[in-house]
Amino acid sequence: MGLALIPALTFAQQENVTTAAYRYGEPGEAFSSNVPLNELNIHAYKHFHRIFSSGVTAEYWVKTADGYQASFMQNDRQHKAYFDRHGYFRFSLAYYEGKDIPRLAGELIRLRYPDYRINVVTEIYDGEKTSYLVRVVNATNIKTLAVYDGQIEVMEEMVNGGR
Q1: Residue 162: helix, strand or coil by DSSP?
Q2: pLDDT one-digit tens code per residue, 11-67
Q3: Quick one: how far is CA 16 from the chain centroid?
Q4: For residue 51, which of 18, 87, 17 has the smallest C-alpha distance?
Q5: Given 55, 102, 114, 145, which is the most exposed site by the fewest CB atoms within 10 A?
Q6: Rounded to 5 degrees, what are φ and ψ at 150?
Q7: What are 116-143's pLDDT values in tens digits?
Q8: Domain boundary among 89, 121, 141
């Protein structure tokens, strides 16, 4: 499963994003896009609002070579949702501080790495399951962990030079 997380992050890191040129809607319900409204896929837009039905703000749509990306805020967290060219949901990412990690994932990490502090979390949702990429830090090391299905896999290890 850890290897399955790599394409999601690679795709997210290779975004070709253009600045907003268009703004739509009424204040409080507005969104921005890098393309005219008629170039956004209506299916992606509908799927987005069905999956993320409440509390969405700062909605920003981007049309890319691979489909569509919606960046937004929800519950004081930065999110990105990805859709293919036909408007079907692929996955979403949410970014937040380690103190906000869900209890079970946090306990699993703290049991296995008791001398590490959970620093930052990237939550990955594929429409069925939620997985996490978690950066943990101690005085000498930094690790990036993939946490899924009650398992932990070390994805990356580095020496912590900046205490």
Answers
A1: coil
A2: 454 454 445 577 776 655 677 888 888 888 999 999 999 999 888 888 899 999 999
A3: 16
A4: 87
A5: 114
A6: 75, 10
A7: 999 999 999 999 999 999 999 999 999 9
A8: 89
